[in-house]
Amino acid sequence: MGELVKGRLESSLPGLRGIVADDKDQEHALVTREGPTKGDAEIDQLYAEAEDKRLLKTSLLLDVLNISNVLTDGVSAMVDDSFNKCFTSTRPEPWNWNIYLFPIWVVGVVIRYLVLFPIRVTLLFIGFNALIVVFLLVDLTLMPSKRKMAMQRKLVQWMCSAWVAAWHGVIRYHGPKPTPGKNRIWVSNHTSMIDYVVLCSYSPFAVIMQLHYGWIAFLQKRILSSLGCLWFNRTEVNDRAVVAARMKDHVNKEDAIPLLIFPEGTCVNNEYTVMFKRGAFDIGATVCPVAIKYNKIFVDAFWNSRREAFGKHLFRLMTSWALVCDVYFLEPQSIQPEESPQEFAGRVQAMIAKYANLRIVPWDGYLKYYNLGEKNPGLIEKRRRVLADVLRAYLGKTSAAPSAMALAKEGKAAVELQSDGKGQKGTSSVASAADKKDR
Amino acid sequence: MGQAASGGLTQGDVDEVIAASKGVFNQAEIESLYKRFRALDRGHKGYISPEEFLSIPELSINPVAQRLVRCCECPNFTTFVKMVAPFSPRASREDKLVFMFTVYDVDGDGFISREDMSMMLKQLAGSSLSEEDRQDIISRVLAQAGGAERLDFPAFKSALSSADLGNMVVEIPVDL
């Protein structure tokens, strides 16, 4: 039991090892079965406390020279880390390795690439283009009206079905079919761009997606926009506020087409789930969770955007036997009175993770795009300050952590004094003055 | 590194790496480390750049991340394994101490001088420790560690003679 608890706590403070758990710490687990629990400032504090607990504080010599703990943290992260696990595709076990199975596999390859693929591509080409033509016709000729919108929705649904047929999708839908309703928003876990197609072929959705490049952009802007889809750029900070406002607009419309959000913000490999961003949970709407689980038996549907282009991903799907998938439409959830939007997001994430059999990881999916230490230097500084306090204690100084203002002043004063050429005494009096002020 | 066409390891490579790391890893661990190396080395260049290391979130929030990453400049696979070797449960205490000494010795001259300690303390304790306090601490440490102006490896080793390095172990995940 002790072993189990220790393991869970070690992973709850990623990047900081060697903490022995006791009951008090269990309350502080960053990620419980109900989802992520803490805000940023609290997480910083947890790291500081854990660091403090870890320091042995035996002697000045050891505390300064014994850097084994931070080195172990670092090398441990180099060897394996929980973030990258979310984006690895598991290599399928080769089964064609003997003289009996190999020819069968070759036959299979021939059929898939030379028979199925051309048939699928041709049918898709014909079907999809025909539908696009009809869609554009409808778009250009009819006046905006309820009927026009209904027709466009039907057409998009057929287009998506054409794609699903091209991959020979075997998709089972569980749970009640979504119906448009006021103040409702749908959220789902994200594995690939085809998530949207899989859902849309069953029931039409509007979606908020990252605006891509090339031919996908054409599809996005021309066709999906008519459904009321919203586009954004994840690196644009201002976009988020705009998108939040438009989300609110959309769900408040009468019989608005259901809006689908992927709160993870990035494609994850369908074994793990990264932090759900709170945007969709913050607008006061009822959240309808959708869980999508792909069966990797014939093909791995995870689109690793760092490793392969979307075209190659589609090619891989179209040259496999089938795409097997389960979609669960879950019970709508509302935010509880004492819950914060982040906690609400965590709760919904736990529901989806249960149905789709995913492991929850406390990292923000956007970490794919930026360096955490650079973005959040406060955390590192907090950890450093813990050691600084311990070291200062050896010198007989107080261990009260100076406030940021005092630190800035101290730093500036120290620089000024040094440039003035004043002696050591001047600096130390500033330091102790700053300490005294904080007490 | 003799790479096969599919980008895999050959037995010769594995033997070479095991020899270079003094045999602390078995073949399964080397294979696992190789998979990890390939995952980190995005462009398949044959070495891992500092940016690729720092894109690991758990590493980037480590106070001494910069020093660790610069310690082995752009490691190829053999160097990567040698870096992880002291953290194997089969590594000797001597190896662990050597590694710690190498990290601490920033300028790489074989001695931990005042400048080395000052730089490391800046990374370990941050800016909340004033320059004066830092120098004071360094003086005391040098005094307690034998009184010399800089520490050589034997002095470092004896200073840490009472330290328990049992925690300095990293488990290599091996797929069974």
TrEMBL record, chain A:
Residues 184-295 form the Phospholipid/glycerol acyltransferase domain. The chain crosses the membrane at residues 97-115, 121-143, 193-216. It is found in: Membrane. It holds the Pfam family Acyltransferase. One of its GO terms (molecular function) is glycerol-3-phosphate O-acyltransferase activity. InterPro entries: LPCAT1-like (IPR045252), Plipid/glycerol_acylTrfase (IPR002123). CDD domains: LPLAT_LPCAT1-like (cd07991). It comes from Volvox africanus. The keyword Lipid biosynthesis applies. Pathway: Lipid metabolism. Its main location: membrane. GO terms for biological process: phospholipid biosynthetic process; triglyceride biosynthetic process. This is Phospholipid/glycerol acyltransferase domain-containing protein. Residues 417-439 are annotated as: Disordered. Keywords: Acyltransferase, Lipid biosynthesis, Lipid metabolism, Membrane, Phospholipid biosynthesis, Phospholipid metabolism, Transferase, Transmembrane, Transmembrane helix. Belongs to the 1-acyl-sn-glycerol-3-phosphate acyltransferase family. GO terms for cellular component: endoplasmic reticulum; membrane.
UniProtKB/TrEMBL annotation, chain B:
SMART domains: EFh (SM00054). GO terms for molecular function: calcium ion binding. Keywords: Calcium. Residues 28-63, 92-127 form the EF-hand domain. PROSITE patterns: EF_HAND_1, EF_HAND_2. Transmembrane segments: none annotated. This is EF-hand domain-containing protein. It comes from Volvox africanus. The lineage of its organism: Eukaryota, Viridiplantae, Chlorophyta, core chlorophytes, Chlorophyceae.
